[in-house]
């Protein structure tokens, strides 16, 4: 017979008891039961038990205990074995110092198995960058969110810090342009006027509203598909050839990053700087088809030119769509 018990080593050790010890334990138990019966303890009390509540209802007939059969056990000639004991901590009350932990060795990187292809861990995707500004066509579109094109955001930061020509000394704010890096259409206008220089957007007021209506109603594109920027990013009067040459590389880089389907050039200064022959005709800017038309401020002062501008925009819609 094997009994699971305690040992000096720990829990779960197997201990084999002495048969004579078990026989003596059983004999003592039977003697105690017999003594209890002789003393009148053969009827169980039926009252409530402390901590357990009242017992279920039963009849009042006394119930005597039936004596258990006693089987004599032969005496064993072997001496009883000592019981295993657990080690006890010292009684001094002093804290027992814990053994120092062994350093854990770093896990070795598994070697690649020949002939087995492993999947590379994907790189984390950069979160979209939110740009603050007055918006594409004024305060109505004040928040412009660009996608993961980090290079485009870095270019805008570089434009804002540009000091390549004399116009940086007279500007109030750099007009880097409005719109995201995935535009279908790029609109390039004349350099910013005094109001645009003050608020930092390409167009302001009635000119902004007019451009919005023309693009939505005629070309059928909205702010998510358009990028608007001036040919020169700083105000300062009529530009010189040196100022144009200093600012055009920014435009060329924006075209390369955005890769629009077409470019709408608005204004005489922008048309001449980009080399488009005349209004209503097609040219190319950095390899992208470009058509020129009148600036919105010019159309506000000359409403009779709106009919020609409508024809230019209809031609542009065919290219963009």
**Going across the major beta sheet, what is the strand order?**
6-5-7-9-8
User: What is the string of helix and strand elements?
Assistant: EEHEEHEHHEHEHEEHH
> Kindly state the mean pLDDT as a whole number?
75
| CATH 2nd-level architecture of the domain at 130-320 | 3-Layer(aba) Sandwich
Q: What is shown here, in short?
A:
With 321 residues, this protein is α/β, with parallel strands linked by helices.
Keywords:
single chain; Uracil-DNA Glycosylase, subunit E; 321 residues; five-stranded mixed β-sheet; two-stranded antiparallel sheet
Protein architecture, described:
The chain is α/β, with parallel strands linked by helices and 321 residues long. The chain has a domain at 130-320: Uracil-DNA glycosylase-like domain (Uracil-DNA Glycosylase, subunit E). The chain is 31% helix and 13% strand. The protein contains eight helices and nine strands. The strands form three sheets. Strands 6-5-7-9-8 form a five-stranded mixed sheet, sandwiched between helices. Strands 1-2 form a two-stranded antiparallel ribbon. Strands 3-4 form a two-stranded antiparallel ribbon. Strand 1 and strand 2 (11-15) form a beta hairpin. Helix 2 runs antiparallel to helix 5 (241-258) and helix 4 packs across helix 8 (306-320). The longest helix has 20 residues, at 19-38. The radius of gyration is 48 Å and the shape is rod-shaped.
